[in-house]
Design brief:
Layout (H helix, E strand, L loop, with lengths): L2 H12 L4 H8 L3 H9 L7 H10 L4 H12 L14 H13 L5 H22 L14
Helix pairs in contact: 1-5, 2-3
Length: 139
């Protein structure tokens, strides 16, 4: 399941909506919408995202969050490590091979490391002093 699919299913169930009714509103088949919720389809199109937002009457921050989740929901992501540190290539390849064996807790730890790195990059881009070069260690 992708982050977008998980959230769409959660919204649909919380609001008591039937999958077939939502699919009809979006102009897609029930099979397609079900596969999208399960993460068996690629990243949703902009038009589909807009349809979901309209269907659930989602605006502002919640709409931005759903669009962000859609952007992070390509189940067959490709990572270009050309011109990076060789460790980045090693990490990308090992992650591709071993991700299915990681526990939810290990995945949470890895996401936390990436969140910290992203925050460090934001601060560095804004010129905020701090640990812009400090390495991030997993827990």
């Amino acid at each position: 399941m992708t982050p977008f699919g998980e959230r769409v299913r959660q919204l649909r169930q919380e609001r008591g909506r039937m999958l077939k009714d939502m699919a009809a509103h979006l102009g897609v088949s029930s099979a397609y919408l079900s596969a999208l919720e399960r993460g068996e389809r690629g990243k949703p199109t902009w038009a589909l995202i807009q349809g979901v937002l309209q269907y659930f009457h989602i605006i502002w921050d919640e709409a931005d969050e759903l669009a962000r989740l859609a952007d992070l929901s390509d189940p067959k992501v490709k990572i270009d490590t050309a011109n990076t540190n060789p460790k980045a290539t090693l990490l990308a390849n090992r992650l591709a091979r071993e991700i299915r064996g990681l526990t939810p807790e290990e995945l949470d730890q890895m996401v936390a490391v990436l969140d910290q790195a992203q925050e460090r990059e934001k601060k560095a881009a804004c010129g905020i002093p701090g640990d812009a070069q400090a390495p991030v260690s997993p827990r």
